[in-house]
Design brief:
seven-stranded parallel β-sheet, alpha/beta, NAD(P)-dependent dehydrogenase, short-chain alcohol dehydrogenase family, 7 strands, Rossmann fold, single chain, 17% strand, NAD(P)-bd_dom_sf, SDR_fam, oxidoreductase
Length: 255
């Protein structure tokens, strides 16, 4: 029996990188997982097939984030499919994982870039939760994927770090507001993770691997599964007494 048997989870950005690892782990623990993606249907279908081939349950839903009406469209896509996979509908676990980077310093950042990174990384999670509250069952879980950049000065990513700081504040307030319903809200803050996004400068580059790994007290670059396992814990009943926290998933970077 899995720790999440009978649960329904929504994972935004669930088809690639950290999101894919979260999808696969939650499904392995027994949850029915809605894999939300923006454009890459092939990647979403691939992870859904992988989950089903290993005995899990998942389905893909499409909604581009960072544009007006994104949360409403995402939940409409969810509602259209959930009954076929989990009779009764509703959701127990919301993982706000989708996000974009922004490698700009204060002087070079444009207003359009600022607006876009905040729209995807902050506004979308806010309204996904707002629209999802009527679907989120008592005792549910909200898990926001933040970043170690929220607590470290990184001037070349000032807007990105600011979005993750805002997301952590959002998490804190959700925990207070929703605690009476037994709903927990927590953030998970990864450091450098070996994903496709970082592949261009990190993979097949021993020097970059060594330099990135040296930033962590545990002496290596993080893997998507390192983050997914923490999310699985927070999604489970074992974490019922943890809420309003930012869980560091950087391997001890910046200590």
């Amino acid at each position: 029996m899995g720790a999440l048997d009978g649960k329904v989870a929504l994972v935004t950005g669930g088809s690639r990188g950290i999101g894919r690892a979260i999808t696969e782990r939650l499904a392995r623990d027994g949850a029915v997982v809605a894999v939300a993606y923006a454009r890459d249907r092939a990647a979403a279908d691939e992870v859904v097939t992988r989950v089903r081939d290993t005995g899990g349950r998942a389905f893909a839903i499409q909604a581009e984030l960072g544009v007006p009406g994104d949360a409403a469209r995402l939940w409409a896509a969810f509602d259209a499919q959930v009954e076929a996979h989990a009779p009764g509908g509703g959701v127990d676990i919301i993982v706000n994982n989708a996000g974009i980077g922004c490698d700009r310093d204060l002087a070079s950042l444009t207003e359009a870039e600022f607006d876009q990174v905040f729209a995807v990384n902050v506004r979308a999670p806010f309204f996904i939760v707002q629209h999802g509250l009527k679907r989120l069952r008592d005792g549910g879980r909200i898990i926001n994927i933040s970043s170690g950049a929220a607590r470290l000065a990184m001037p070349n990513g000032i807007a990105y770090g600011s979005t993750k700081g805002a997301l952590d504040t959002f998490t804190l307030n959700l925990a207070k507001e929703l605690g009476a319903r037994g709903i927990t809200a927590n953030s998970v803050a990864p450091g450098i993770i070996d994903t496709d996004i970082n592949a261009g400068w990190l993979r097949d580059n021993p020097e970059a691997q060594a330099n990135a790994g040296a930033l962590a007290a545990l002496g290596r670059v993080g893997q998507p599964e390192d983050v997914a396992d923490i999310v699985a814990f927070l999604a489970s009943d074992d974490a019922r007494w943890v809420t309003g926290r930012v869980v560091d998933a950087t391997g001890g970077s910046g200590l």
